[in-house]
Design goal:
113 residues, alpha+beta, 3 domains, 3-stranded antiparallel β-sheet, 3 helices, 30% strand, elongated
């Protein structure tokens, strides 16, 4: 990696580590990300998941197409105790609380994906 790309990489890395609110343009200047409601930009959000994380990619493109910004963020998924949910499900069925049982069934399904 040449020195210019290394410098840009380090600036982007520091911006990410410090909250991800700064974007370093290719010319080396820094600017804030546009606000979500800014009419001069269009924003898209893509979300993907791994077993343990939720990854979000936000992309802003200026209306005239001259500038493109991206920001990535990750979130650790909350762990779900499937065994505990199954015990609660059995208890709900035994108590004939079928609404609660359906809710628990759906939570178990989501956790096992």
């Amino acid at each position: 990696m040449d020195n210019k790309n290394n410098n840009k990489y380090m600036k982007d890395l520091f911006a990410l580590l410090l909250g991800g609110d700064m974007f370093t343009q290719s010319n080396g200047s820094s600017m804030d990300f546009p606000k979500d409601e800014d009419p001069n930009w269009s924003k898209t959000v893509e979300t993907s998941e791994t077993k343990s994380h939720i990854i979000k990619k936000e992309t802003w493109i200026s209306k005239d197409g001259s500038c493109h910004m991206e920001r990535f963020s990750t979130e650790i998924k909350k762990s779900v105790d499937v065994g505990r949910l199954k015990r609660q499900l059995k208890k709900a069925i035994d108590m004939e609380d079928y609404e609660k049982a359906a809710e628990l069934r759906d939570k178990i399904k989501d956790a096992e994906k």
